[in-house]
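Shall we go through a protein fold together, starting from nothing but its sequence? Label the sequence line and the structure token line clearly, so we can match residues to local backbone shapes. Would you write everything just below, so we can both look at the same thing?
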Amino acid sequence: MKFFIKTFGCQMNVNDSEKINHILSDREMERTKEVEDADIVIINSCAVREKAQEKIFSFIGRLDQSQKIVVSGCVAQSEKDLILKRNRKVDFVVGTHQFYGMNEIIDDFLLKNLKGTNTTLSKEWSEEVPDIYSRENRFTGFISIMEGCDNFCTYCIVPFTRGREKYRPYRNIFDEAEYLAENGFREIVLLGQNVNSWKDQKEGVSFASLLSRIAGIEKIKWIRFITSYPGYYESELIDVMKQNRNIARHIHFPVQSGSTRILKKMGRNYTREQYIQIISKFKSEIPEIKFSSDFIVGFPGESDRDFDLTLSLIEKARYDSLFSFIYSPRKHTKAASIDDNIPAEVKKKRLQLLHELQKNIQLEAHGGLVGKELEVMVTGNNMKREGELLGRTESYKIVTFPGNHKPGEFVKVTIDSFGPHSLRGLEVI
């Protein structure tokens, strides 16, 4: 049998898809690159925004009626009834913690032409999640260290799709990191909804201590962690990063709004001033560090003054990159009951202004890199230009350059031109 996996959403979903691939490949099923060649199609879904959810329903609608269709992930967890109601093609809906039973789903349902669901959130994630080391990517290894969230931000559906916070044991994480290092991986990314809240109380290991221990593993060039929540900031993290150069000088640090008033309405447990202080402390101790962030525009009650505060925070922080979205209410969340009183045209205009500001910031930053030599990790071929490679810097800047290297190799590149979203250069010989 052949299977196809379509992944929507964040790195956590990418990591889940790698695990599904491992499970099915172990039973000697063949993964196909073309959806039309598959006997079983697995859609790993994202429910963070309404637009992402609608893309999933659209994709399902285009599939062949003869194919077995499994929907997994966050939409499966939160909208199982809606999926089955809107898409009679779907054979099985499996939640965020149940895909480890994919073999049983195939044997007990798909091969017997039955339909079913399994979306019960497990209570002890760390106890029932097996260690799966299989990877599609051969140079970047994602490692789940925790899952779920206890914050219940008023706009966020994650606690309802991933459950409460569950921490993977330190020893399992460290062993997997060592395995990846021994098998040629140059970059490790620690994953979780709130990675810096991770701890192993039994072993007495904090997140900063975990980072320090993994940094001691030889052969790992870059260690990253996604995503950091500003409300869990610890000064120990700065010390560990400062002492270990193989921890990448880049942090994704989602703030969501530059207004303390809106942050409070969002249920974020920090203020604008506290957020700025954290970034300033990092920059004073590690001058080369770069930040990226997430912003939501048009949250209910956001005034012109609130939005101006968001723009001024972006000016002050000078992010390397941003992910920004128009607010959309999500089922189950507290904010869904609040009157969405910002007109659509106002939301769109604010998003446009934010994009224009960030574009100018990136153009200015990229212009300052012309003539500079940057270390770039090759990620593949540039499909738009024959003979060119694609790579990314330590702070995720995209770089294109002529060359002949394999993905995962590190190359020194001198930057000679730029745009708002990428750099171009020549390999240093």
Observations:
- The longest strand covers residues 373-381.
- Residues 344-367 form the longest helix (24 residues).
